[in-house]
Specification:
Length: about 350
């Protein structure tokens, strides 16, 4: 089965490609390399024994998409490509709506014209806004507090309308919680360009000496230690969630929505402590004011995915941090340029 993976050289996409190959599927990647490097392909090959076919193109380029879909008899699309930095989205909303919303509309149009009717979309727990309670189930109300989150919400709504009008399509919205860690080989991992926005890549860069200390944004939240609590999920579990979705609901027409999380919440201090254990050294950190737009706590009720997709996260916090450290220590500057 040939699967088109948009954004497949990125963090989650590259790990998913490895799991697809391991399962005997054939990923074909489209990425414009805006936030990733082509050297990721050699790493996928070293780990899996297969170098995926790669087309450097933008998801807003309909002709390029159609050409790939028709030439390679694509049966399903996993759509990771997009921009994901919350802060940047406030500064550059148009870029976010263009890449994330317009990019998805162009993709759907290209799929329609090529006769491909199965889509898995990378959504986010950010669509739950500031949830009234935890754990979060898929029927919680949705809202957005920044252009990035709104772009995900708009895409979810567009895809919902589209699926209702085209009931023979299978569209799956996967709402990821907080992906962390890396492939256990240490060959692939998260390689943010510039200053990391997210907690764990920042912690890893402090551990490897690229940055001096971690700023802990807020220690006065109503949580067990005052710092923010999130549902961190190993990126390999997340990758497996895509395979499970392809297998169990991919062939079924309908609109399918799933949380991909572990159901556990860890605080910022828990995560720093776990990483200290993994790397065997202290991670200097300082308390700083709350980051605007952050919520106190957020974790998933993943039971719907467990029931329907026969999937659940199996890798614990120790594996998340040990694998994250293996990647960062072996690749202190991230992926090579070529
Ligand atoms: P990433 O930036 O590592 O990967 C995205 C890839 O898409 C990159 O390789 C980038 O070059 C490519 N891309 C961006 N715009 C493109 C375009 N217009 N055309 C073609 N390629 C384009 O990000 P990631 O962490 O792997 O995230 C993948 C998806 O999952 C994104 O849609 C993101 O919003 C979503 N998501 C991520 C997280 C997270 O914390 N990492 C959480 C929830 C949802
Ligand atoms: N944090 C710090 N210091 C940092 C970075 C983050 O203390 O340098 C804290 C945050 O305040 C928060 C926690 O660490 O309490 C996690 O923050 P992240 O930025 O790693 O993750 P978020 O939960 O804010 O958001 C992430 C992605 C979103 C996605 C969401 C899904 O960035 O795109 O997870 O739950 F939508």
């Amino acid at each position: 089965m040939n699967v088109l993976v948009t954004g497949g050289t990125g963090y989650i996409g590259s790990h998913t490609c490895i799991q697809l190959i391991e399962a005997g599927l054939t990923p074909i990647i489209i990425d414009n390399l805006y936030n990733s490097k082509q050297s990721v392909l050699s790493r996928i090959e070293q780990v899996s024994g297969t170098r995926p076919l790669f087309i450097q193109a933008d998801v807003r380029d309909k002709d390029a998409l159609k050409k790939v879909m028709l030439e390679h008899q694509i049966e399903a699309v996993i759509h990771f490509a997009g921009l994901k930095a919350v802060g940047e989205s406030v500064e550059k909303p148009l870029e976010y709506y263009d890449n994330n919303v317009n990019g998805t509309l162009v993709l759907i149009d290209a799929m329609r014209e090529s006769g491909v009717k199965r889509l898995i979309f990378s959504s986010s727990a950010t669509v739950y806004g500031d949830p009234a309670s935890v754990p979060i189930t898929e029927d919680f109300p949705t809202s957005a507090t920044n252009p990035y989150g709104r772009s995900k919400l708009i895409v979810e709504e567009c895809l919902t309308d589209f699926q209702h009008a085209n009931p023979d399509w299978s569209i799956t919205l996967l709402r990821y919680f907080n992906p962390v860690g890396s492939h256990p080989s240490g060959m692939l991992g998260e390689d943010p360009q510039g200053i990391p926005n997210n907690l764990m890549p920042f912690v890893a860069q402090v551990a490897v000496g690229r940055r001096e200390f971690v700023s802990v944004f807020g220690n006065d939240y109503p949580t067990k230690d005052g710092t923010g609590v999130r549902d961190y999920i190993h990126v390999m579990d997340l990758a497996d969630g895509h395979l499970a979705a392809l297998k169990h609901v991919g062939p079924k027409a309908g609109l399918h929505i799933y949380n991909l999380g572990t159901g556990n919440g860890y605080s910022v201090l828990d995560m720093i402590q776990a990483f200290e254990k993994a790397c065997g050294k202290p991670i200097p950190h300082q308390f700083a004011p709350r980051r605007s737009g952050d919520i106190a706590e957020c974790w998933a009720d993943p039971s719907k995915a467990q029931q329907d997709l026969h999937w659940q996260a199996t890798r614990n916090l120790e594996e998340m941090t040990a694998d994250g450290w293996r990647w960062q220590s072996a690749n202190p500057q991230g992926y090579p340029d070529t």
